[in-house]
Structure formats: structure tokens, C-alpha cells
Amino acid sequence: MQDLPMYSRIWYIHATKFNMIPYLILELILDIIEMKTSLKITLASLALLSATCSFANSEATEAKSTGDAAKGKTKSATCAACHGADGNSGNPLWPKLAGQHSDYIEKQLTDFVEKKRNDATMTAMAAPLSPEDIKDLAAYFSGQATKPGSGNEEKVGLGKDIYKGGNLTTQVTACAACHGPTGMGNPAAKYPRVSGQHAAYITKQLKDFKSGTRANDGSSIMRSIAKRMSEEEIEAVAEYMSGLH
Ligand code: HEC
Ligand code: HEC
């Protein structure tokens, strides 16, 4: 009784006095529904608030690479076969690097060198790179323009719901909170840009995070999200992200 809102308590006294128990039960059910609805609204506005904060933050603290983009261009000749000369790869399993934040590219290449992230193809490619090469390559690719992609129309609906609002039932966090409302990420926090990325590559990364094959995300940020996602959700959100810009 003490936990009930004031008007319910008054209603309770009123109802018991006039023997209106069935109405009292109805009132309680309505109370519970109202509580759940307001909880949903609170959670949705919190996600939106943090999205706005991280977006504002990314604009204020845009990290600039200290590498030399011209040297990076020369060094990128070996990368071009897979990632494209301008960082827009043709094969959907080879990620686009064009327009990706330089700090994120540096972190990934360093992780491949230190074997914190492993891939049969990419680990071998990163192995000979020095810290200076990594900075130069990151400066070059981050300065290229991303070619926009397009998402599969049948799947983008569910994908958009997850991206913007997450899944409350399975506690999947809204992707927009960190990757930004238009998928531009947050350079200062090393939250990667995902807009325009190939859907097949995104799907593979989410499945790798889910299974733990990819485990270089600090504090298991992405592993804890991906493990709550169904295959259908993963494919849908990947399609939505690839068309996002
Ligand atoms: C033979 C093909 C191939 C070549 C050559 C290659 N890569 Fe990759 N790269 C890949 C693949 C495949 C992946 C994705 C690995 C995975 O699935 O986790 C990748 C991933 C990456 C990533 C991570 C991107 C992200 O969004 O997380 C970076 C950065 C990268 N490569 C940079 C380079 C650079 C710099 C070079 C040249 C020195 C290079 N790659 C050469 C195939 C290649
Ligand atoms: C709390 C912040 C946060 C949220 C929320 C979040 N991410 Fe991420 N995401 C990250 C970080 C950090 C990384 C980079 C991990 C690393 O350093 O390798 C990342 C990496 C990724 C990558 C790999 C990108 C690449 O180029 O390899 C994908 C794909 C991705 N996230 C998808 C999603 C999806 C889909 C959602 C929503 C269901 C989501 N993320 C929600 C922080 C977040």
C-alpha cells in the first residue's frame, strides 16, 4: 500500500468502503501499465540524450592525425589491392577505410600487429608496419571520401529500429548512442564510423564479436551488445548502417 501513488491509495480506501474490489484490481493493472510506459519513455530519452552528448562531443574534440598523408599514400600501394586505392574496397568482406577516423585506424592496425585482433589475411599485412607507417597510413585513408552504400530495402526497417532504439526486451543498446545518429562515430572516443560500410563486413564483425573471435573492444563494449543480438537483427542493422549517411 505504502508504495502505491497517492491517488491509488485514496482510491483503495474509497473502493474498499464501497466494496468495489474488481475496480480496484483494474486500477492497479492500469497503474502497472502506466509505470512500464513511463519507464520506456525514460529509457528512450536517456539513449537520445547520450547520443546527442556523444555527437556534440565528437564535433568539439575532433582528433587530428599526426601522420603524414602524402607518405601514407605511397605506403598504401600494398593495401590498395584489397581496400581500393582511395580506401573504397570492391569486395564486401574487405572494409572501406575511406573517411574512417585516423585514431580508430591506428588502434586497429596496432591491435593486428600485437595480435589483439586476428584475421588470417589482415594480420600478415599489418605485421611489417612500424608505428610511423601506421600513423601515415591512418592519415591518408581517413582523409579520403567514403562512397555511400545502399541497404537492402526489406531489412532496413528492423535495422533502423535497432540502430535508433536498441531492443528493450533483450537489452541491446541503441547503436546511435555511440556510433552517432548518422553513423559518423565519435573520433575522440575511438567509436568507429559505420556509415556506408559494407553490410557483409559489418555482419561478419558483429558475429565475430558475438562469438568472441574478435575481442579487441575495450571493456567488452561490443561483445556484450552483439551477444544479445539475433542473427536476423545483426543482418538487418548491417543493411541499415551500410545505407546510412
Ligand atoms: C589481401 C587483402 C588485404 C590487404 C592487402 C590489406 N588488407 Fe586490411 N583488411 C583485410 C580484411 C579481410 C580485413 C577484415 C578482417 C576481419 O574480418 O576482421 C581488413 C581489415 C583492415 C582494417 C580494420 C578496419 C576496420 O574497420 O576495423 C584496417 C585498418 C586495415 N585492414 C588496413 C590495411 C592497411 C593499412 C593495409 C596495407 C598495409 C591493408 N589493410 C592491407 C584485407 C586486406
Ligand atoms: C557504448 C558504445 C557503443 C555502442 C552502444 C555500440 N557500439 Fe559498436 N563499437 C563501439 C566501439 C568502442 C567499437 C570499436 C571497438 C574496437 O576498438 O575494436 C565498436 C565497433 C563496432 C563495429 C566494428 C566496426 C569496424 O569498422 O570494424 C561494428 C560493426 C559495430 N560497432 C556495430 C554496432 C551496432 C550494430 C551497435 C548497436 C546494436 C553498436 N555497435 C553499439 C562502441 C559502441
Could you please describe the fold and organization of this structure?
The chain is mainly alpha-helical and 245 residues long. The chain folds into two domains: 38-60 and 148-242, Cytochrome c-like domain (Cytochrome Bc1 Complex, Chain D, domain 2, Orthogonal Bundle); 69-142, Cytochrome c-like domain (Cytochrome Bc1 Complex, Chain D, domain 2). Helices cover 58% and strands 0% of the residues. It has twelve helices and no strands. It has helices at residues 6-17, 21-60, 69-75, 77-83, 102-113, 120-126, 131-142, 156-165, 176-179, 199-211, 221-226, 231-242. Helix 8 (156-165) crosses helix 12 (231-242). The radius of gyration is 24 Å and the shape is globular. The N and C termini lie far apart (52 Å). The structure holds heme C (2 copies). One heme C (HEC) binds next to helix 4, helix 5 and helix 6.
Per DSSP, what share of the residues sits in E-state strands of 2 or more residues? under 5%
Structurally, the number of domains stands at: 2
For this structure, what is the CATH homologous superfamily of the largest domain? Cytochrome c-like domain
Largest beta-sheet details: none
Mean pLDDT reading: 83
Globular, elongated, flat, extended or rod-shaped: what is the shape?
A: globular
Order of helices and strands: HHHHHHHHHHHH
Counted beta strands: 0
Helix content: 55-70%
Alpha carbon gap, first and last residue:
52 Å
Query: Which ligands does the model contain, each kind named once?
Result: heme C
